[in-house]
């Protein structure tokens, strides 16, 4: 293993996943070639053995619908077998289902081949143990293991095909039947019309294997067939075109609920019968209502960009505690784990992107589980003629919101960005009408009074990239522009920070 290849592997690390180009396109050579995939999977196998997993244990392998997944799967399985582990080949599967193989099949670990919502030419590897997905530090060790690694090349392994998605779907159906407890027990969704948009990823099973089998009318559902070229729209609940598509389908088909998943179903969102998005802050609010049932006064961990209206809703309407933390789904989940470990009642960690981890579900971010909880709540309320969307009618949305992304032109972008944030904190203390938020856990969040924009801004460092996102919300028309104008004088003095995007927004 050369140092050059080790540096390549480090560049393929994206948070807690491996991601890179898997299909050659113009100007983008393949990064996840066969050797790289085999090598990194071997590093994971070595990491498992070093952490007490015995050879001959079973490791599950699954993949999403990407066109490179079958090629990559062959190399993943070859590496696992070389270390004398046995394989459950789960083929097309969701990412959360792959973790659940450690629960339902007794697997010691699992590997999911996915690049989430990224374009068709990308792919990646996500590693699980019985404790959940690997943390960033664990993945660093996996990568380091590839250097000088001796591969044993055993030949006493077994490879068994397993249709685990059928097991996974059955568990979700049983959960809905149990919680709704309808008169016709095994058809709790009779009379409901639910439209599903799978974006040609893995999520089509939810329409046919969960909802339809429970009596729901799923006609009007779209893009259920797996197609790794993603020909219709990006399989991403944060994508405006994708959300517009599911909203239009819900209205067109007079559905009670519209559901959309990302490629590998670890994220989800939905729309109500009027086509209104239940997304971002609204999704967090709805999930919080569900999570706080039986957890009075519980703490909800979210990422840092959530709105002031959401804080008011969780704290005052629901009687819970809104705990803003860092962006990144592993960050919010790890903080949820830490808080519960300290005795804090924290039933939910949720990022505005649609990652939602319920404590009751192994702290697993699972889009299908989230939607199942929402479907259950809809059916329960329907017994008394109430609508799902009525639950969040008191959530106050901002009048305006914007996100501006400022590129950093310094090689050591993290140090530079942290200096900007620190100096902005000092600057904020001198400004009339500015108040630094008391719960800053990422970047700096500042509230501005009505005269100075009637809202707030948050400046932070991107989780992975040399970018400083600037989030702005205001409760007044024209307020976001005024807030941008307020902060521009500070930002423009940093020559390595591209503040022109703020200048253009101000106009």
Concise overview:
The protein is an alpha/beta fold. The chain is built from 15 helices and 22 strands. Helix 2 crosses helix 5, helix 6 packs across helix 7 and helix 6 runs parallel beside helix 12.
What features would you describe in this structure?
The mean pLDDT is 96. Strand 19 (434-436) and strand 20 (444-448) form a beta hairpin. The protein is of the alpha/beta class. Helix 2 (34-50) packs across helix 3 (69-82) and helix 6 runs parallel beside helix 12 (367-382). Strands 1, 2, 3, 4, 5, 6, 7 and 8 form an eight-stranded mixed β-sheet that branches. It contains 15 helices and 22 strands. The protein is 36% helix and 19% strand.
Backbone CA Rg: 23 Å
Q: Note poorly predicted spans.
A: none
Largest sheet: 8 strands, mixed
Helix content: 25-40%
Category by helix and strand content: alpha/beta
Cα separation of the termini: 52 Å
Total DSSP helices: 15
Q: Topology of this structure?
A:
Elements: H1 3-12, E1 13-14, E2 17-21, H2 34-50, E3 58-63, H3 69-82, E4 86-92, H4 95-104, E5 109-113, E6 122-129, E7 132-133, H5 136-145, E8 159-161, H6 164-180, E9 194-197, H7 204-211, H8 240-252, E10 257-261, E11 268-271, E12 277-278, H9 281-291, E13 299-302, H10 308-317, E14 321-324, H11 329-341, E15 348-350, E16 356-358, E17 364-365, H12 367-382, E18 400-407, H13 413-428, E19 434-436, E20 444-448, E21 455-459, E22 467-474, H14 479-491, H15 500-506
Parallel strand pairs: 3-4, 3-5, 4-8, 9-10, 13-14, 13-15
Antiparallel strand pairs: 1-2, 2-6, 5-6, 6-7, 10-11, 11-12, 15-16, 16-17, 18-22, 19-20, 20-21, 21-22
């Amino acid at each position: 293993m050369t140092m050059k290849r080790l540096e390549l592997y480090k560049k393929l690390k994206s948070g807690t996943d491996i991601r890179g180009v898997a299909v050659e396109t113009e100007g983008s050579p393949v990064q996840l070639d066969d050797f790289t995939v085999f090598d990194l999977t071997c590093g994971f196998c070595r990491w498992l053995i070093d952490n007490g997993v015995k050879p001959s244990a079973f490791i599950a392998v699954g993949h999403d619908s990407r066109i490179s997944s079958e090629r990559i799967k062959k190399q993943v399985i070859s590496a696992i077998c070389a270390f004398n582990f046995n394989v459950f080949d789960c083929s097309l599967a969701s990412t959360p289902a792959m973790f659940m193989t450690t629960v339902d099949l007794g697997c010691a670990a699992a590997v999911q081949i996915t690049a989430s919502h990224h374009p068709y030419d990308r792919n990646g590897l996500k590693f699980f143990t019985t404790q959940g997905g690997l943390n960033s530090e664990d993945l660093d060790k996996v990568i380091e293991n590839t250097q000088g690694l001796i591969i044993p090349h055993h030949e006493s392994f077994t490879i068994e095909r397993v249709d685990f998605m059928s097991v996974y779907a059955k568990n979700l159906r049983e959960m809905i039947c149990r919680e709704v407890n309808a008169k016709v027990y095994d058809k709790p969704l009779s009379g409901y019309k639910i439209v599903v948009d799978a974006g040609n990823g893995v999520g089509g099973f939810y329409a046919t294997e969960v909802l339809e089998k429970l009596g729901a009318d799923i006609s009007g559902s779209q893009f259920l067939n797996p197609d790794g070229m993603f020909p219709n729209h990006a399989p991403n609940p944060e994508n405006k075109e994708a959300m517009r598509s599911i909203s239009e389908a819900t209205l067109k088909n007079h559905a009670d609920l519209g559901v959309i998943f990302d490629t590998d179903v670890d994220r989800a969102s939905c729309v109500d019968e009027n086509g209104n998005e239940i997304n971002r802050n609204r999704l967090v609010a709805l999930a919080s209502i569900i999570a706080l049932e039986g957890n009075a006064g519980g703490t909800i961990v979210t990422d840092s960009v959530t709105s002031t209206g959401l804080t008011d809703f969780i704290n005052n309407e629901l009687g819970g505690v809104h705990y803003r933390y860092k962006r990144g789904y592993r960050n919010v989940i790890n903080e949820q784990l830490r808080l519960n470990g300290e005795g804090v009642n924290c039933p939910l960690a949720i990022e505005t992107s649609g990652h939602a981890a319920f404590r009751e579900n192994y702290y697993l971010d699972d889009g299908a589980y989230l939607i199942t909880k929402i479907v259950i709540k809809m059916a329960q309320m329907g017994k008394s003629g109430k609508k799902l969307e009525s639950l969040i009618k008191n959530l106050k949305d901002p009048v305006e919101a914007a996100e501006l992304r400022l590129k950093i032109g310094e090689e050591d972008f993290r140090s530079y960005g942290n200096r900007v944030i620190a100096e902005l904190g000092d600057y904020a203390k001198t400004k009339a009408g500015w108040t630094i938020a008391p719960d800053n856990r990422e970047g700096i969040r500042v509230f501005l009074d009505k005269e100075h924009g009637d809202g707030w801004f948050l400046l932070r460092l991107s989780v992975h990239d040399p970018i400083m996102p600037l989030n702005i919300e205001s409760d007044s028309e024209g307020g976001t522009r005024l807030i941008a104008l307020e902060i521009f004088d500070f930002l423009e003095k940093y020559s390595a920070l591209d503040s022109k995007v703020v200048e253009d927004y101000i106009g």
